[in-house]
Every structure is written in structure tokens, then in C-alpha cells.
């Protein structure tokens, strides 16, 4: 009996030992990591485009509403006043009632008419029909020999955007990330917008518009990048395109806000300073940081946690043994506190030959696109049509532009689409010249054809503008993507900064403004021929990875063509 009990105990120990070995083997298998890129995790486990990504796109795109409002508010605040009239005392003293009545009837909004009438009158003998507080031009007498001063605030706004794009782009890539930059930009936008309403003269106003342009530039950069870095490859174009619905909503809201307070331009600035504050407290806390940026900064655990959160909202679950990597790199930094980043901090667009060449082409293209896109909108007052109705029509034309652009992006090459839309916009702008002579009669029947062609041309330029922003995100890797987008937007703003000067010239010669807009748009459309196609291409993480993988693709294409 004793021997049998001893034997049973030995068998039990042996079974327990074998079971322990099996458990250890299972644990070892469980601990074996699946090394996947962000693209692979999104496609396989998170979902290419689900509820979580849709919510992220909506949240970050809300910032485009007040970005649009701050960019285009000067269409109303800095507009040529609607008309003028002689003062009663001046009529009795030195001017005949018939002269004032005849000239007042045609005195609204055309600089050529003003030069022939108002500019020749003595100070104090006439007044604006809408009052001196209706626009900045009326309040500070920015007409006649001071007419080009009216273009300075808007030009400085876009120049401020250029500096802001450079500042925010680099800061978002190497330090604060996309979400914190979005928060900072919203705070500064609200502050500078409100202070613009307190400007005592055109010079302080110009400085505050410069500051406002600097502040708001971070909104557009981060909203586009945050939207496109959390979705699968096939959804990037549509997501980037549909985000511009919110930009359109901001533009469409402006005439409805401006019309009831059309006699007080300062009130308009105070009203549009409020949405950024609401956005900061209600929506920004719900935005998630880009997992791609977290990964290239060496914060793997945070990146993985963001992906798990996105998967949970999509009612999916990530495996526990996933390890995020950057393709083509042998090692990664997995510890949370490691200060080293996965990407090389010395990687720079301007020191990488292929990237610098690509960036220069994008910026030249962007300069023309920005000049035309904003030039058409700011030039609406030279159409001799109701300003509020013209802005509404242009805003409504953005909607089919976004829809058509989104559909075309799903099956059309980016390079071809950006080129054709830019050239089409240029041709339509030139066609507007045909109706300029007829519209000078200032009748509704002669203005409608010109307005229709201008609106279709604006739709084409809007498609180009939207596609360029998406195209730029796909052309560069994560570790320099925000900087690349900021450079692209800086070139857009540089073009836009010159468009107010064209508008001022267009008050004297509307045909000239449309010739310049059309020619520049056509020239810009030819530049995209030198850019590579990015449709269905992956989003790379580093410049080194992108260079290696694109070179490998080119090598395979050469081999396949040689065999053929």
C-alpha cells in the first residue's frame, strides 16, 4: 500500500510538471508579438472607416467653420460701401439737387464712378448712405488716393498665415502634436478676432488681421492631417474632401450673419470670435491624437491605446500581442519613457533632394491655386451684383465641388484631377471677360451670365484647392507631413495675399482681374505633371522609408516593362 501511494504521488507530480510545461509554452506563444504597421492595424483590426473615424473627422472638421469665417470675413467688413449722397447743407450751399440725385443713383460701389464724383467733392459735402460704421472703407475713408490701403489688412492676414503655417507645421511635427496645436490655434483665433473689432485705425486693424491670420493657420493644417491619418488608404481622398463641407458651412453662414448687422462691421468680428471658444470646451476634448505621430515620436503605448479606443468605438478589438512598427526599420523603441524617437530627427524635407524638389513644385502649384481660389471670392464685388447673394451662390457652388471632387477622387488620379480642374477654372475666368462689357450696363439680365460662369469657375477652383490639400498629405511621410502641409498652405496664403491687390485694380478694370486669374490658373494646372501619383499608395512614416519603398516600386516597374 505504501509503495502504491508513493507511485501515485510520483505520477501526480509528473503530470503537474507536464501541465506546467504546457502552460509555459502557451504563455510563450501568447507573448510572441505581432509586428504590424499602423496601416495594417487599421485595415485588419480597427476598420478602414467606421464610426470612430467618422466621429474624428466631424470633430476636427468643425474648426474649418470659423477658419472659413475668419479668412473671408473681409468680403463684408472691407467691402466698397453701397452708395453715397450729398449732405443737405452742401446741396443748398454749392451743389445743385439735380447733380447730387443723378450721381447718387450710380454712385454705389464702383471705384471708377467714385473717382469721377466723390473724389472731386470737398470733404464734408457728402456721406455714405449706409453710415460710416458699415465697413472699414467707409469709416477710415479708404478711397480715391487711399484706395490701396483697403487691400493691406487682407493681404497681411494671408502673410500672417504664411508665418503661422511655418510655425505650427514644425511645432506639430516635432513637439506638441496635432491635437495640442489645434487647441492652441483655436484659442489664439478667438482672441485676435475679438481684438480686431476694437481697432482704432487701419494700421492697428492691419496688424490684428496679420495676427489673426497667424493664429488661424493651425486649424486648417491639423484638421486635414488628423482626419486622414486615422482612416484606411481607400478612404483618404473622400475623408479629406468631405471635411471641406464644414469650410463651406462657414462661408455660407457669413452673409446671413453679416446682413442683419450690415451697418456695423465691428459686430461681425465679435460674433465670429465666439465659435472657437465653444469648440475648445465642447469638442476638442473628444478628439484623439494621431497614432502615426505618436509612433514616430517613440510613444508606442499611447499610439496603441489610441488604436484600441478607435477599435472599441467600431465595436472591434485589437489582439493583446500587437507591437507597432515602422516598415523597413529593424528596431523600434517600445518603452513609454524612452526619449529616442523612431524616426530620425535629422530628417528634413530641404536636405532630402527628392522631397525638396517635390515640395517646391507643390508650393508653386499652391501659389497659383491660392491666388485664384481666394481671388475669385474677394473679386465678387467687381461683378456689379448683389454682394450677399453672390457670396451665397459661391458658397453653394462649394457643395457640388466637394461632392464631385469626392466621387472623382475615388477612381481618378490625383495628378490628373488637380491639373484639369485648375485649367478649367482658368478658362472659365477668361470667359467672364466676354460679358464684362455687357454687364457694365448694370442690368440684372446682363449680369446673370457672367455670374453663372464665375460661379462654375469658382467650383472648379474649389475642387483644385481641396484636391491639393489631400494630395500634399499623401506626398510626404508622417515625420514631416505637418510641415509639408504647412508649406503647401503657406504657398496658398502667399498667393491669396496678392489677390486683394488684384481686387483693388479690378475696381478700375474688371476685365484685367479676370485675365490675370485665368492665366495664372492655367499655368498652375500644368505644374502637377511633375508630381508622382499617390492614389491607393500607403501613407509612409519616415522620409527614409518612403524613399526606399518608392525606389523599390520604380525598380519593379522597370523590370516589368523590360520583360514586356
From TrEMBL:
Domain Major facilitator superfamily (MFS) profile: 56-536
Region (Disordered): 1-24
UniProtKB keywords: Membrane, Transmembrane, Transmembrane helix
Domain of life assignment: Eukaryota
Membrane topology summary: Multi-pass membrane protein
GO cellular component: membrane
GO molecular function: transmembrane transporter activity
InterPro entries: MFS_dom, MFS_sugar_transport-like, MFS_trans_sf
Keyword Transport appears in the UniProt entry: no
Subcellular location: Membrane
Skewed-composition ranges (Basic and acidic residues): 1-22
Parts of the chain that traverse the membrane: 148-169, 181-208, 244-261, 267-288, 359-376, 388-409, 416-436, 456-476, 488-506, 512-531
Pfam families: Sugar_tr (PF00083)
Official protein name in the record: Major facilitator superfamily (MFS) profile domain-containing protein
UniProt organism field: Gossypium darwinii (Darwin's cotton)
